[in-house]
Specification:
The chain is α+β, with helices and mostly antiparallel strands and about 70 residues long. About 20% of the residues lie in helices and about 25% in strands. The protein has helices at about 20-25, 50, 65-70; strands at about 5-10, 30, 35-40, 60. The protein has a two-stranded antiparallel ribbon. β2 and β3 form a beta hairpin. It is globular and about 30 Å long.
Amino acid sequence: MKRLFDVEIDSSLCKRCSICIHICPKKVFIYANDSIKVKEENCSGCGICEIICPDLAIKIEKRKDERTDRR
């Protein structure tokens, strides 16, 4: 599956409250090894996680088309 969005968690801001894990309809976030991991290929870009994160630790950006990057 092609990744359409880049999802970034700022680990210096994230307190691992796991709200993103529970709120994400696409199951992008998982808790592993005492941190939140990201499965970017699942992201639909809805932005719910960015809005709901109390630490403002999540950023979602639409990926640039790889063909555009080569010009």
